[in-house]
Amino acid sequence: DSASSAGFGNSASSTGYNSNNSASNGFGSASSGFNSGGFGVATSTSGFGSTSTGGGGFNTFGFTDEDDMTMSPGGSKAFGQSSIMDTTKSPRRRRKGTMSPTPEEGDADDDDDMEDGKQKEEELNKLKAKLELKKKMLAERKKKKEIEAAAAANTPAAAPATEQQPSTQFTPSSTSSSHLPPDLQQRYKEVEEKLAAKRAALTAGIEDDIPEDDTLRTNNTPANPTKSLSGTCTSMCPDEEIIQRDMEGDIQLLEIPHAAIHSKGATLRDTAVKRFRRSAADFKLDIPELVRPPFVLEICCGYLEESVMERDRQGPDPRYSNAPPPSLDVYQFIWDRTRMIRKDFILQNYIGTGGRCNAIATRCHERIARWHAMCEHQLSHLEDFVTMQSQQNIQELGQTMKTLNQYYDDAMGRSVLEVAEGDVEVDDDAASSSLKKENYIHGCQSNVVLGASPVDYSGSPMKNDDGVNRNRLVGNENNNHVSCGTAEPEMRGLYILLTMNNDGGMEVLKYVGKLCEQRPEIFRSKPVQLALRIFQAKKEHNYARFFSIMKSPSTPYLFACIMFKHVEQMRKIAFRIMSRTIGYRNRRKDTGEYIHINDSYPLSDLVELLCFEDLDEARAACRHYNITTKEEVPASGGDAVDLIYWRASDFRESKDPKKGTTLPLKPRKMVRIIETKLNGATRLAVCRGEVSGEGAMLAKRLSSSPK
């Protein structure tokens, strides 16, 4: 106990928990019991953190009687407002049933009240002075930001990170409304004026008088909870979001319209794509004018494929100071935007049985799934992707595949119907001229990547001409297939590969059992049967068959990309088995020494067997697993070759010398085995099903719907 210290117990002027005086924080009060609480800076008392002048009162109450609770003088009614009071001299209250105070006691109370009034007036004057000082500081800060913004507009952007060390954050642009269409520029000015008035009112401490800001939105009515929401936003990004993000400087460089990249006269309404955002107390997602209908969502997929997806492989970008955008910038941008595309479908109740379902929703999710599966291998040469993004990429792929399973299992079989029961058509006249339905096929406006032809990371040019799209499932005007561009067999097979490790393989067995019973046509399809052979090879630790299937020309590219996730495990199994089974040894009768016989194995054969990129990678793997290799000249002469001596080795995994944990051996990007399956196809072509392989689509529409 002390006069002004904090602790559990009593102090000279108060009784409570962690009581204190003058400018210290605590968990109690400066009067008997719990008297005041707030979050802020204390001057004469503290409560739940601190309170009084300059602090934010949190419904400040005074508990001065066991059976009476009243609002303390000056107690604020809202979190964040100041509470100007001094609770060290709180009014004295009497228990119920006691006698009235005597005149002497009343005079003493009046004197105390006068002193309290003077002290309050002094504190109020101090607070006013602080507010004036705060206004000046805010004005100076605003002026400084305007100067910095003007300077930034005339200064080239910083050079992007190199390909080996890509940025892991979005690269935002400088704040500027010059890219807004004319009608939004006027709304931008109106909102800016209103926000400036709101900031001034907040600074003066009168936010209770500020009306709710509804300048951005013309309709604040949320969706009717009794029926499915139908989006009415006919642009890739709502106008409200464009204005808000432009004010906040949150327009990404990949969204900035540029004459060298986009068509003449393009504005943010033509290039910005709705970003991912969760619902919050102050922001609702289920507003019809903020939600894009299915045909607009498919147009967004097409735009990302045509204008954004290959930007890191299309050479210099004027928005990045004439340097290629970092690959992770492109990946993270599309990861965020496709996530919101899926969110808009969920908001409109596209969940299969019990909700809505059609071929548009199915195609969009399939294209997003192909993007995630492709990135799992195509970006594996980036260390930042492998260490920080790969796990999230697989999670998003899994969520996308689960939604696709719901669509395929729809009780009414609507996953292959272009317009299904329950769909609400949006008036095409409401869409902007660039988003008319008749201008698109499956949301695709172009069959090629717009801009410069992309070049692979290895320097090989990609095929980007209009005559190589004959085998595409999506966007092909000559494709009048009954499945409407959907690829259920392919996606079912990818899901099997994605879940091979779940529950020791039991999830796959349950999944294919259900397929065999309810969807025999899908179960017997080539993609599903191929996935089952891969699953069997992995389950049986048959590494030779696993890698043989991977390098087979008949194995689709995306299947090989998912198999890449299991390469590290299968190679470790191979080293363990081969170190115990290849070769044998005899013991000499005279000395008892072991003689190793036929235990040598050419390292070049191991490269082909386990699909290593080259001898260096295979040699590094042998060192990692403590396998002996020697360079020897053959008895027949010729160049020296690397040989593995299995029986002279003791298989052992490398461990961290400090932590003692097992060190992983991440495989290198398999350009020789996997990337060659693309045969020059662009990312656009992959997402639209050009390399999906034989049997990816249904041969005919199923006569019966799923049970």
Short description:
The chain is mainly alpha-helical.
How would you characterize this protein structure?
There is one protein chain. This protein is mainly alpha-helical and 707 residues long. It contains 18 helices and 13 strands. It has helices spanning 103-153, 182-203, 239-248, 268-271, 294-308, 327-347, 359-378, 383-408, 488-498, 506-518, 520-523, 526-539, 543-551, 557-563, 567-581, 603-609, 615-624, 683-687, and strands spanning 8-10, 15-17, 26-27, 38-39, 48-49, 56-57, 61-65, 68-71, 584-587, 594-597, 600-602, 628-632, 641-645. The protein has a 3-stranded antiparallel sheet. Helix 7 (359-378) packs across helix 14 (557-563). It is globular and about 110 Å long. Mean pLDDT is 77; it is low at 1-105, 155-168, 208-215 and 703-707.
List the helices and strands and how they pair.
Layout: E1 8-10, E2 15-17, E3 26-27, E4 38-39, E5 48-49, E6 56-57, E7 61-65, E8 68-71, H1 103-153, H2 182-203, H3 239-248, H4 268-271, H5 294-308, H6 327-347, H7 359-378, H8 383-408, H9 488-498, H10 506-518, H11 520-523, H12 526-539, H13 543-551, H14 557-563, H15 567-581, E9 584-587, E10 594-597, E11 600-602, H16 603-609, H17 615-624, E12 628-632, E13 641-645, H18 683-687
Antiparallel strand pairs: 1-2, 3-5, 4-6, 7-8, 9-10, 11-13, 12-13
Helix pairs in contact: 5-6, 5-7, 6-7, 6-8, 7-8, 7-14, 8-9, 9-12, 9-14, 13-15, 16-17
